[in-house]
Amino acid sequence: MSENGSQNISEEEEFMDTMETPRNIEQEAEDAKNTGNTYYKQKDYFKAINFYTNAINLMPDKAAYYGNRAAAYMMVNNFTSALDDSVRSVEKDPNFFKGGLRMIKCYIALGNLTAASRSLQDLKSRDTNNSTSYASETTNINRLRDLEATADKDMSKNDYRRVVYVLDRALEMAPACVSYKTRRAECLALLGRYNEAQEAANEMLRQNSLNAGALYVKGLCLFYQDQLDKARQHFLQVLRVDPDHSKARLAVKDVKELESTKQKGNAAFTSGNNEEALKLYRAALMICPNNKLTNAKLHANLAAVFMKLRNYEDAAKECTAALKLDDGYIKAYARRIVCYQELDQHEDAVRDAEKLHKMEHSRESKQRLRDANIKLKMSKRKDYYKILGCSKSATEEEIKKAYKKAALKHHPDRHSHGTEEQKAEAEKKFKEVGEAYSILSDPNKKMRYDNGEDLDDPTGGMHDVDPTQIFQTFFGGGGHGAHQQFFTGGFPHGGGRGGNHGFTFSFG
Known about the structure:
two-stranded antiparallel sheet
């Protein structure tokens, strides 16, 4: 019997050992919450969130657990999740005022001032004993409204730099506000700070790949960097995400109109219809004033038309306008150098050539700088073509005709009755005319002069030129037609080195 009794007791003990101990769910939830609190104090917010989530899974109706997790989410700037938990905490317990306060803070951080203000009024009406403790949230809401109004005003004045400054201040209080971030990124693009704008847009797209505002900013950056086709694709993508996005719709229209007008201008220029090209390029400039790089090219195109019309003054102005929009635009510098040289502004041409060579540092830019320096040096010499009154492309016969006309005009005998000052000026010009003809009538000297070589060097440069001798050689020998008497060997009335020997020449 004792054996049987002993056997029964052993079986009973074995049965009791195999029974599961009842779980204390509430205690497990509290333990999870307390562990979460420990990690929260250690600023390990992600681990804290995990343990708060465990507590919520065990006790899903406990308002405080949602409140704790909301606090942790706020510390990692996940205000959307924090707002969801704060709303749920208040739904679980309308008198959980901490949850209500966190909800207001999340609305402010997200830039939803209407919801923040409404929730604040509701909380004050329910927590009448502590209504004054919400003064900070009231101040922040009012401050953000003031900043929004300031940003709107600055935006209307196209003061984009100021808008960025104001929105930076607003984002200090509302760091998760997508509309502030989008507007700021758009202003950065409008300021030409494309890298910063694209970085801001990419950050928003990492959080939401269908953020229409961020996609629009990326398209705007491409548009303003003259990548019109890629920009159009981005704007069309924005409209697929948000068909009512008015800015993207307008941008698509601008891209299409800009491309079309520019292409028509190019066609007109190629076909020689210069006036039509000017009209079209100017019309293209009006489409999007903020598109600096594209507009720089349009100004350069206008310069090309003016150069074709030999209107170098207006061409230089258009090049300058292009460089104000894009100070690294090589083609605009190259064209302005040519314009300056045609306008005899050679020092300006050299400055541009030096700047261009620093930018390119190529064989072509080096040669351009060398040529500019040669032309500068040439510009400081006497312009023999100008003295004779003929073009640099004048033929030998045209040079002779030009000399004949200039020599007769400035021969001192024609000014013998003038003042001493007038006589001296005539003598000087007559000498210059003879000097010019002695160079330009000699193929070798003319070639060296045109190449910018120094004709006064010991290897065969300028020597004393007797203008009267040239004149006598040119006009001597008489002929038929009208006659006029001049004096050789120097200047009129025995004032020269050859005496008072006259000769007769004819002209017709």
